[in-house]
C-alpha cells in the first residue's frame, strides 16, 4: 500500500505573518530614515539638564550651546511669521532686566547669559534648524534608561525612595517625565502612543511629584478635548483645571501614598508664606535678577517654588507679562478660536500645559531648556511657513534642489 503525503497547508496566521513581515520591515526602515542621529543625541542631553558641570555651568547650558552650534551650521527650513517682533520684544525685556538689576545692585551677567542661550534654542527649534522629532526621540530613550539605572544604584538618589536619577531632583524629573510624556507623541508611531502614556504616568508616580502628575493629566485632557470644545468652554475647562489642582495639592497629601510627606508639605507652606511676604514688598519693576529666593529663619536660603512669583520678583510686571504672553498666548494659543488644530500643534499645546501647571508649584520652570524647547515647537507649528528656495521657488528643497532638477531632466 503506497502512502501519499498530504500537502502541508500553511495556517492563516503563518500566511499573514509572511505578508506582514516585509511591510513591517519597510515601515521600520522608513521611520529610521527620518531620525537624525546627532539631533537624537542632543535630545538625550535633556536628562542631564540639572547636572552641575563646573561651578555655575550646568548641563542645560552646555546642551543649549550645542543645539545653537549645530543649528547655526544648517539652513532654516521655515520662516516664522512675526518672528522678528518676538525676538525684539524678548531682547527688550532682557535689556530691561539688566537695567533694573543694576538699579537694585544685583548681579545679572550669569542669568542674562542663560536667558540669551535659551532664546537661541527657541529660535533654532522654531526655524527647524534641528529636527525636534529626533531630539524628542533621543530624550525619550534617555528617560527610559534613567529608570533602571536609578534602581540599579547607578544614578543619583537624593530624594529616596522617589525617582530622580540623572535629573537630580524629583520635581525636575516629574516635570520632564510629564513634558516628554506628551511630546513623545510627535516622535513615536501611533501604535505606541497609549503604552507610552501609561509608562509616563507610572514613571510620574515613581517621582512622587503630585504637581507633575496633575499637570500630565490636565495636558492629556487638553490633548483630547482641545478640538472638541469652543473658546468659551475652553476657559471653563481652565477654571475647572485650576480648581482640580488646588484640590490635588490640598487633599492628595492625606492619601496613604503621600501621607509620609507631612514634613515636606509643612516646609513648602513655610516657603510659600515667605514668598508671599517678599512678593508683597516687591515694586512693579522687580527686585532684580537672582532674587528668586527666601530666607527661612533668617539664615536658610531657599529658592521659590512658584515660577510666576519668581518672574514678578526678578523682573516685576514686565517679566511676568512676557512669560504669560510667551507661554499662554503664543504657546498655548488660549485666545485662538480655531477648532481644526493640526496634530503637531495640538501636542505642543499639551506640552505647554505641562509647563504652565508645573510652574505654579515648582521654581524656575519658565526659564529652562525644556520650556523653551516646547515653546519653539509651538511657535514653529503655529507661525512657521516653509521657506521657498530662492533659485527654484520651491519650499523645502534646500541644497539638493539642483540635483533634483538635473535628475528630472
From TrEMBL:
The chain crosses the membrane at residues 28-48, 54-73, 80-99, 111-127, 134-152, 172-189, 201-225, 231-248, 284-303, 315-334, 341-360, 366-384. The keyword Cell membrane does not apply. Keywords: Membrane, Transmembrane, Transmembrane helix. The keyword Transmembrane helix applies. This is O-antigen ligase. It comes from Rudaeicoccus suwonensis.
Amino acid at each position: 500500500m503506497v502512502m501519499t503525503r498530504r500537502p502541508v497547508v500553511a495556517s492563516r496566521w503563518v500566511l499573514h505573518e509572511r505578508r506582514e513581515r516585509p511591510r513591517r520591515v519597510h515601515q521600520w526602515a522608513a521611520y529610521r530614515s527620518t531620525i537624525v542621529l546627532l539631533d537624537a543625541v542632543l535630545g538625550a542631553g535633556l536628562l542631564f539638564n540639572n547636572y552641575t558641570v563646573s561651578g555655575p555651568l550646568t548641563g542645560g547650558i552646555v546642551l543649549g550651546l550645542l543645539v545653537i552650534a549645530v543649528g547655526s551650521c544648517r539652513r532654516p527650513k521655515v520662516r516664522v511669521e512675526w518672528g522678528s517682533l518676538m525676538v525684539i520684544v524678548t531682547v527688550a525685556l532682557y535689556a530691561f532686566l539688566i537695567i533694573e538689576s543694576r538699579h537694585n545692585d544685583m548681579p545679572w551677567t550669569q542669568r542674562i547669559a542663560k536667558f540669551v542661550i535659551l532664546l537661541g534654542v527657541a529660535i533654532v527649534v522654531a526655524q527647524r534648524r534641528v529636527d525636534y522629532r529626533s531630539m524628542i526621540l533621543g530624550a525619550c530613550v534617555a528617560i527610559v534608561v534613567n529608570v533602571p539605572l536609578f534602581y540599579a544604584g547607578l544614578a543619583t538618589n537624593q530624594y529616596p525612595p522617589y525617582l530622580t536619577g540623572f535629573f537630580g531632583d524629583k520635581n525636575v524629573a516629574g516635570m520632564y517625565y510629564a513634558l516628554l510624556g506628551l511630546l513623545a507623541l510627535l516622535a513615536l508611531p501611533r501604535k505606541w502612543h497609549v503604552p507610552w502614556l501609561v509608562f509616563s504616568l507610572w514613571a510620574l508616580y515613581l517621582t512622587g511629584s503630585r504637581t507633575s502628575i496633575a499637570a500630565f493629566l490636565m495636558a492629556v485632557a487638553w490633548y483630547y478635548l482641545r478640538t472638541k470644545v469652543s473658546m468659551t468652554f475652553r476657559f471653563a475647562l481652565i477654571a475647572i483645571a485650576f480648581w482640580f489642582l488646588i484640590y490635588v495639592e490640598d487633599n492628595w497629601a492625606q492619601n496613604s501614598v503621600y501621607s509620609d510627606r507631612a514634613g515636606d508639605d509643612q516646609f513648602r507652606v513655610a516657603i510659600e508664606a515667605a514668598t508671599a511676604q517678599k512678593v508683597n514688598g516687591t515694586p512693579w519693576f522687580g527686585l532684580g535678577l537672582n532674587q528668586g529666593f527666601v530666607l527661612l529663619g533668617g539664615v536658610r536660603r531657599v529658592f521659590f517654588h512658584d515660577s510666576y512669583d519668581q518672574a514678578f520678583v526678578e523682573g516685576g510686571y514686565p517679566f511676568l507679562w512676557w512669560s504669560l504672553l510667551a507661554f499662554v498666548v503664543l504657546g498655548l494659543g488660549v485666545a485662538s478660536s480655531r477648532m481644526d488644530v493640526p496634530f503637531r500643534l495640538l501636542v505642543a499645546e499639551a506640552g505647554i500645559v505641562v509647563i504652565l501647571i508645573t510652574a505654579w508649584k515648582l521654581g524656575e520652570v519658565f526659564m529652562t531648556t525644556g520650556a523653551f524647547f516646547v515653546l519653539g515647537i509651538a511657535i514653529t507649528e503655529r507661525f512657521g511657513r516653509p521657506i521657498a528656495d530662492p533659485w527654484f521657488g520651491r519650499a523645502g528643497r534646500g541644497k539638493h534642489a539642483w540635483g533634483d532638477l538635473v535628475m528630472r531632466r
